[in-house]
Amino acid sequence: MAHEAVFFTRPRKYGKGSRECRVCTHRMGLIRKYGLNICRQCFRENAADIGFTKVIISHNHFNTIYSSLYTTLNFNPYLNPYFNLYSILI
């Protein structure tokens, strides 16, 4: 039995082996969220064309949001273990 007869004998219908980048057919580093199915390198090249933008929140802006939430809620988040500021921002 030659190497060609053994190589890729298993059907690739599910799992990591069945998925590939729709741009370059690369199989590793795949971004599957939102049905993109693009590898991370192709995503970086085409992110602006697709409509993704990089959002950067500075430390000062984060503190402004945090302090405004603190005053409007009249609530001390350090006393409540279930409070999650990131879930409010999202």
UniProtKB/TrEMBL annotation:
Keywords recorded for this protein, A-Z: Metal-binding, Ribonucleoprotein, Ribosomal protein, RNA-binding, rRNA-binding, Zinc
Q: Which GO terms describe its biological process?
A: cytoplasmic translation
* Gene3D superfamilies documented for this protein: 30s Ribosomal Protein S14, Chain N (4.10.830.10)
UniProt KW rRNA-binding keyword = yes
Cofactor(s) listed: Zn(2+)
ATP-binding found in the keyword field: no
Task: Please name the GO terms that the record assigns under molecular function.
Answer: rRNA binding; structural constituent of ribosome; zinc ion binding
A GO cellular component annotation in the UniProt record: cytosolic small ribosomal subunit
Q: Which domain of life is it from?
A: Eukaryota
HAMAP family, per database record: Ribosomal_uS14_2_A (MF_01364_A)
Q: Which NCBIfam families match?
A: PRK05766.1
- Spell out the protein name for this chain: 40S ribosomal protein S29
What is the organism field in this record?
Answer: Smittium culicis
Q: What is the lineage of its organism?
A: Eukaryota, Fungi, Fungi incertae sedis, Zoopagomycota, Kickxellomycotina
